[in-house]
Amino acid sequence: xxxxxxxxxxxxxxxxxxxxxxxxxxxxxxxxxxxxxxxxxxxxxxxxxxxxxxxxxxxxxxxxxxxxxxxxxxxxxxxxxxxxxxxxxxxxxxxxxxxxxxxxxxxxxxxxxxxxxxxxxxxxxxxxxxxxxxxxxxxxxxxxxxxxxxxxxxxxxxxxxxxxxxxxxxxxxxxxxxxxxxxxxxxxxxxxxxxxxxxxxxxxxxxxxxxxxxxxxxxxxxxxxxxxxxxxxxxxxxxxxxxxxxxxxxxxxxxxxxxxx
Length: 261
Description:
The protein is α+β, with helices and mostly antiparallel strands. It is built from ten helices and eight strands. About 40% of the residues lie in helices and about 15% in strands. It has an eight-stranded mixed beta sheet with strand order 4-3-2-1-5-8-7-6, with helices on both faces. Helix 2 (about 25-50) crosses helix 10 (about 240-255) and helix 8 (about 195-215) crosses helix 10 (about 240-255). The model has no long low-confidence stretch (mean pLDDT about 95).
């Protein structure tokens, strides 16, 4: 009888080296990275159909002045936004750089989130199809998969029509929250980098779709609380979100031109 060759265990695989997150030599270098990632996110969202008319916005805190942030100009299509189109504003919604119009719906939301959560670098809210549909159920996400468990005890329900999109929104998100299900409105995510927040949004949109589809099957088996809690905690530091965004980033960079001019 032949001996079986040794195989690696799951625990041993977990100790293999992973790609390092970027380290920037200057605020300007980090700023350019954040702005490019914003543009990649908009192109990606256009590809996925997450855009809806003039609705939807993504922000990135400026690495040098924490009370300033970059975001998309109002009424410019996600599929054509370039780095040069991005505008910089302050918490009062005053345009500091850029030629575009300040987004009247986006600035109050992002200013509140970034001011109220100093740990947040990026916030994402668009009217994506399944996020809107799931938000009409008034339910939280059930941990029916590892992807859904990422949001276990890290998301909340919120009624923006009743409570607005200012301080109450930040309070609902909480100190450790990474997502909101905004009733009859859609979904919102925040992260410790543009990569982190954008990946979480794309994942949450898919999770909403899967929740809707899974409900048609009847009674669901969910991941137990302790395992779901461990899964969610892996994304707390921001690295896991950054890592999972890299294939999406690489795809857009390889297939898209005219991102910066």
